[in-house]
Each structure stands twice: as C-alpha cells, then as structure tokens.
Amino acid sequence: MALATAPRQGRAIPVVRTPPIADQVSDVILSRIRYGVYGPGDQLPSESDLASELSVSRASVRTALARIESQGQVMRKHGEGTFVSRRAPAAQPYIADSWDMQSIIEAAGLQPRIAALTATERIATDDEARSLGMQLPGRVFEFLRLFSGGDRPVALTNDVVPPYRFEGPVNEIDGSMLMSDIVRQCSGLEIAHVESRTSAANAPEAVARRLQVEPGAALLQLDDVFFSVEDEAPVVLSKAFVNAQAVPIHLYRRWTR
User: Fold this and answer.
1) β partners of residue 197
2) Residue 33: which CATH number?
3) What's the rounded Cα separation, in Å, for the pair 102 and 87?
4) d(CA 167, CA 131)
5) Where a domain ends, among 90, 110, 131?
C-alpha cells in the first residue's frame, strides 16, 4: 500500500510503495541462489511448495521464475522442474534488469561508493527540455558524481534531474544517494525503467583526470533516460563514462534462435 505524508514547506512528498509480489518472490529466490541455499544444478522446490512457504499465489511464483529464467539464473525442464543454472554464480544479473553502476560494481566483488562532486541548479537547455518534456524556462538540478569500487574510480556520471516537486536549493539534495532516492526527493516519483544507449568513447581530459586514466583512454559511454512508474514520463537524463577495465561486465544473453 502506498503511504504519503502531506507536503511541508514546498518539499517533495515522501512516497513508500511495496514492490509487487512477484518481485518480492524473485528477490527471495535470487538471494537463496546468491548465498548457496540453492546451489548450481540444484532443483528448486515446486511452484506449489514455494507458494505455500512464501504465502503467495502460484501465479506470482510462476511470474517470478519466468523472470529469473530470463536472467539465466535458472533453467526450467519440461516434466522435471526448475533447476539452478550451473553457471548462475558466474553470471551478473541480466543486463536489462540491473544496468546501474552500483550493481555492476557489486557484481565485480567490489564495495561501491558514490562521491557527489558538484551540484548545480540552472535552466534546462532546449535539448534537455525536449527530452524531459518540460516547458521553458524550466529549472533542473545537475549532479556530477564519481562511482568507485573500493578505492578505484570506475565511472563518472552527469545527471540532470528536474525538481518537479522540490522547491528548496540543490544543496539540500544529497548527491551521494542512489538515483532512485534522488528522483524520489526531487519529484516524489519512482523509477520504472531506463533506456540506455551504449557507445565507445575516448576519455576527455577532465574525465580522464577523475577516472585516473590516460587522456584518450578507451571508455564505455552510457546515455540513459530514466522513466517514472506513474506515467512513464522521463525524469532523469544521465551520461556516464565507465572504465570497463576496472569493472569487468559479465553478461548472460539468452539465445532466441
């Protein structure tokens, strides 16, 4: 059930939402796989047994298992049951579900850290207003953030967020929070999904300095648009430069032909 408090002094309305049941079931099963409760090659309990144990419907369990199968963590064999993939421990969660820097760094076995470098309040550019569906002049918050794995810089991100329901100054926003928390504070919205465009890039001098690489070094560039749950409106524009040599990205790609 969604809970909300009344707005105070123009601040964003805090919203707490319970994840869908199927998502909660997925989290439980994936956690058990991650911690070895279900080991590689092990057969999972039946849908009925899981539904009874977790006090949910079989439909929710079925939806959760289908999602986990698409991530390569389990395999369903007709007439036999569902088994943990023998390669599940080596595979990072399916990229379409977890393309965020924190997950990538954690999957590499490193401790993620986010450093807020700068926070700026300004008027949106024409391109930003068009991409975010804003009317000009409209204000945006711009955050420059550095992601590290342990003590090693991994990614530099530039995030543009419209403060739809936040009237305070940008320095009241903690730029070291997860993006979902920043969006929640700026607009009271939840992130539904992210559209990401990837490309190769040579490190500009300013980026190279932050990532501690040579200018011109090969980097992965991500251009992301974050969309909200409520009306699938764009709520963040993000550009990231990632040093993929610092965090190897291990993908599982399901074969469809």
Assistant:
1) 223
2) 1.10.10.10
3) 22
4) 22
5) 90
Of 70, 90, 110, the residue that ends a domain is: 90
CA gap 24, 67 in Å, rounded: 12
- Using DSSP's 3-state secondary structure scheme, residue 133 falls into coil
My answer on whether 130 and 220 are in the same domain is: yes
pTM of the model: 0.66
pLDDT (tens digit per residue) in 193-227 = 888 899 999 999 999 999 999 999 999 999 999 99
Burial 44-59 (b: 16+ CB within 10 A, else e): bbebeebbeebebeee
Using the Cα atoms of residue 53, residue 57, residue 61 and residue 64 in order, give the sign of their dihedral: negative
- Which tokens sit at 37? 């409760």
Domain with 45 in it:
21-90
Residue 238 CA from chain centroid, whole number: 12
228, part of any domain: yes
Would you give the DSSP letter of residue 163?
A: -
DSSP, residue by residue, 64-78: HHHHHHHTTSEEEET
Q: Answer yes or no: is 14 within a domain.
A: no
